[in-house]
Every structure is written in structure tokens, then in C-alpha cells.
Amino acid sequence: ILNYDIMARFRRRTCIILLLFILFICSIMMALKTLRPDRAGFGDPFGLGLLPELQQRTVLLDNKQNSLNRVQGDTVTRVSNLHSIAVNTMKASMPPVNKLEEEASSPNYNFHIFYYSWFGNPQFDGKYIHWNHPLLPHWDPKIANNYPKGRHNPPEDIGANFYPELGSYSSKDPSVIEAHMKQMRSASTGVIVLSWYPPGMADENGEPTDDLVPVILDNAHKYNLKVTFHIEPYKDRDDRSMYHNVKYIIDKYGGHPAFYRHKTSTGRFLPMFYVYDSYVTIPEIWANLLTVSGSQTIRNTPYDALFIALLVEERHKHDIHRSGFDGMYTYFATNGFSYGSSHHNWASLKAFCDSNNLMFIPSVGPGYIDTSIRPWNNHNTRNRVNGKYYETAFSAALLVRPEIISITSFNEWHEGTQIEKAVPKRTGQVVYLDYKPHKPNVYLELTQKWSEKYRKEQEQWLM
To answer: Does the keyword Plastid apply (predicted)?
Structure first.
């Protein structure tokens, strides 16, 4: 009886240990999947405003599957190798805890960060703007009926999964602009990529913001930062309107000391423009503007510049080259969502750019979550994993030795890609995500850390 009792206890203990071991292995696999979705393709596409070309197609599901197959076609071995290299290049996960928040490294003009000045509140704008973002319905009515409708009700309920330390601020508030410049400088970023619509135009949830550009330029100059422009897909954007708008920007803002110009390999200093959703316009239209023989050519004129197109699908790289663009960027902070945003494709994109005299600007981000405005889009959520996701993205970017790295984003709160300071907050119905166990400025510190690492590695590349 005693032996039977001992054996029974031994078997129970063995089963418990085995169960705990299985749970441990499962949790490790889930964490790695969150960090790097090796074979992930498109989840639910972002929504009507984010990928308009995908929404305009009548065969959306077929194209979605084709995109998925392209991403899945890459070998697991290549992805696994990239992941091991990325992990090995990471040293400490966090910068020193005692680092002073106010300590500002010199700005790194090869670190470009996307910035949005579209937020408003009653004190400065007479109403809330963007913080009261509507909940966007799914395009399939059957799915849409399963999710809430309406819009957010600030200041307690905002259109974001995180909550800003500055609250539901106005982008016009001088103290907010000052705080943002200070944060971006502390992160050792150098170039603000400002979301821009032509005068009198705005996104469907916002108000015109061009009149704020001089204030942003002045404040950027105080912190030795530069400003370039992220041209949004405004109504009737084509070769003619782009020519007039580029001319407007350069004529009005080009003389400001904070206006960014990039030194090219030929020694010229040219303005730079990121063009969001560039793929919506056919290459022939862009070629009118961006090639020397084009009917609306901007080349070899006082308004010549570097134009950087958004690459989403692999085929876009050929369109970008034919269009006469000077480079490409990937924008999305969702590893595995698109061909361009998938880290394991960056090496081949960089090789394509190198062989065609194009710039490749990978976009890194700290994570992604937009379920506060697209409650059906949890497939595309990327957990921050206490900063590990961000560091993995930086590691992948450094591996391809890019001339510039872009960061998505400083304050795109709707999509949870912000590195701006966020704080814990709980209201009656909402519990916001936060950066705990770290401080509100942890992503600024991580950015500063990788900016310095990039600078040191870049020196070695040039030797």
C-alpha cells in the first residue's frame, strides 16, 4: 500500500510538471509569434481610408489571398535566420533607468519620424477633433453588425487604445508643440515627417492644418530639428496638382532654417517628400511629374526634390521605378501585414533599390493596435512586448544598412503606433493600455538608444 501511494504521488507530480512544461513552451511560442509573425500575411485589411486601392477592387478577397500567398511563399529558414541575427544583435532591452529625461543627444537626421498635427479640443479649436474618431464599420455588413457603432466621447473616451500623458490635447496648443519637440529631440530623431494636406483640405475626420506649419517649423528650429512633408492622398491628387503643391510648399516654407534638405550622392541638397498611398495613382501619371521627359516634369527645375513612394505589395517596386520616384518607404508598423511591412522582405527590397538607384527607407514601429476605431481588426494587432517588438524592428532595419530609417510614429494614437509618452488610465467603461512596467518615456529612450547604435554602425559601413 505504501509503495502504491508513493507511485501515485510520483505519477501526479510527473503529470503536473509535464503540464507546466507544455504551458511554458506554448507561451514562448505565442510570444515569438507576437514578435515576428513568420508566415503571417494579411489579416483583415485596415479599412476604407488606409488601403484605398485594396478597397476599390471588386475582387478584394481574391487579391487578399494572392497577397497572403506571396508572403507565405518565403521560406521559413530565411525568416528564422533573420530572427536569430536580430535577437543576437540586441544587447540590453532597456536603456539605463537613471537616464535623465531631459538629456538630449544630438539629432540624427537619418532618423525620420511621422508626426500628426490633426488633434483638437474645445479649448483651442472649439470642439474635439480626431479624439472623437468614429468607429469604422467593417465593409461586410454581416461582420459589421457584430461590432459597436458610433463615435468616441472625449476626454475620458478617446479614439485610441493608449492614453496620452498630455491628455486629449490640441495640436495648436503651444505647450503641446513645445513638449512634442522636446520629446522628439530627447529621442535623438532629427527629421519630423509632417502629415500634410493642401490649404483648405483635410482628412475626412479632421480640419485643415496647413496654417500650423509655420509654428511647427519655428518650434522645430528651437530644438535643431528639421521638417519634411508627408503628402496625404488629397482629393484629385495627380501630376498637375502635385506640381502646384510642391511649388507652394517650397515657395512658402523652403527658406525656413528648419526646412529639411537631403544631401544626395552627387552633393546636391534637395527637399524630400514622402507620398502616402502613392500606388493609387498609375505610374504614367507620376512619370509626367517625376521623369525628365514628363509633360509636367519637376526635374531640373527650382522645385526638384526627392520623392519617396509607399510600397505595400511587391509589384509596387516596379511601378515605383517606372514612375520616376527616388525611393520607397514601408510605413506600416505591422510586421507580416503587407509585403513591404514584413521585415524578412527588407533585404530583397534594399537589393532592388540598390540595383535601380533608389533609396530604401524601412519603417519601424513599436507595435500596432487600432481596435478603438476598427474593433474588427484585432488580426493586425502587434503586441509591444515591453519594447521587444520595437527593438526587433530596429534590428531588422539595421541589417539592410539603409541610408535613412523612418519611425511609425510619434503620435498616430488611433493605430497605437505612437512613441509619445502614454500613461495608465481607467474610466468607468475603458481600461487603456500603457507602457508599464516601464516609464511613460520608455519608447523615446529606446529610440535614442537605437539612434546611437545606428550612428555607430553607419560609421563602420562607410569605412
So the answer is: no
389: left (phi over 0), alpha (psi -120 to 50) or beta: alpha
Most distant CA pair in the chain, distance: 97
356 pLDDT above the threshold of 90? yes
Tell me the mean pLDDT in the region 378-385.
96
- What is each CA distance from 337 to 278, 358, 359, in whole angstroms? 18, 23, 22
pLDDT of residue 84: 39
Nine-digit cell at 331?
A: 510605413
Of 245, 302, 238, the C-alpha closest to 269 is: 302
Return the axis-axis angle of helices 388-399 and 442-462, rounded to nearest 10°.
10
Of the CATH numbers 3.40.630.40, 3.30.60.50, 3.30.230.70, 3.20.20.80, which one belongs to the domain with range 114-462? 3.20.20.80
- 273 three-class SS: strand
- The confidence band for 229, taking pLDDT boundaries of 50, 70 and 90, is very high
DSSP state letter for 440: T
What are the Cα distances from residue 85, in Å, to 242, 305, 344, 462? 41, 36, 12, 21
DSSP state letter for 414: G
Distances (CA, A) of 121 to 137, 162, 409, 428: 25, 18, 21, 21
In angstroms, the CA 63 to CA 60 distance is 5
Confidence of residue 19 (pLDDT cuts 50, 70, 90): confident
Q: What is each CA distance from 417 to 9, 26, 245, 301, 332, in whole angstroms?
A: 50, 27, 28, 37, 9
Contact 162, 432 (CB under 8 A): yes
The C-alpha cell at 272 is 524630400
Q: pTM of this prediction?
A: 0.82
More reliable by pLDDT, 36 or 446 = 446
CB atoms within 10 A of CB 375: 17
Domain limits, the chain:
114-462
pLDDT digits (tens, 9 = 90+) for 230-277: 999 999 999 999 999 999 999 999 999 999 999 998 899 999 999 999
Pairing between β-strand 261-263 and β-strand 269-275 as defined by DSSP bridges: antiparallel
Q: What is the pLDDT of residue 463?
A: 73
Spatial contact of 362 and 329, defined as CB atoms under 8 Å apart? yes
Give the position of cell 485589411: 45
C-alpha closest to that of 165 among 420, 342, 346, 384: 420
Phi, psi of 356 (to 5 degrees): -120, 20
